[in-house]
Amino acid sequence: MEVFIEKTGERKQISFNGTAKKLLESIGVNYEEVIITRNSEIITLDEEVKESDSIRVLSVVSGG
């Protein structure tokens, strides 16, 4: 699967099947600081991702 990490601008090709949360853990990203999209749709941490998916890890911005 292709994984794009917005914060670093990094693109990775990895082999993974499992939940979005496990994917983030495997690539060292804190799941509390990001939103994940699968094939351009926002998904929750417990949703399954698979080899054929395109994943984007988007940073959540907060402040006032």
In short:
With 64 residues, the chain is mainly beta. The protein has one helix at 20-27, and strands spanning 2-5, 10-13, 18-19, 34-38, 41-43, 48-49, 54-59. Helix content is 12%, strand content 41%.
Distance between the termini: 36 Å
Q: N-to-C SSE series?
A: EEEHEEEE
Question: How much helicity do the residues have?
Answer: 10-25%
Class derived from helix and strand content: mainly beta
Largest beta sheet, briefly? 5 strands, mixed
CATH superfamily descriptor: Beta-grasp domain
- Percent strand equals 35-45%
The tally of helices reads: 1
CATH top level class name: Alpha Beta
Number of strands: 7
Ranges with pLDDT <50 over ≥5 residues?
none
How many structural domains can be distinguished in the coordinates? 1
Q: What's the rounded overall pLDDT mean?
A: 94
Within the largest sheet, what's the order of strands?
Answer: 2-1-7-4-5
In CATH, the architecture is Roll
- The coarse overall form would be globular
According to CATH, the fold-level topology is Ubiquitin-like (UB roll)
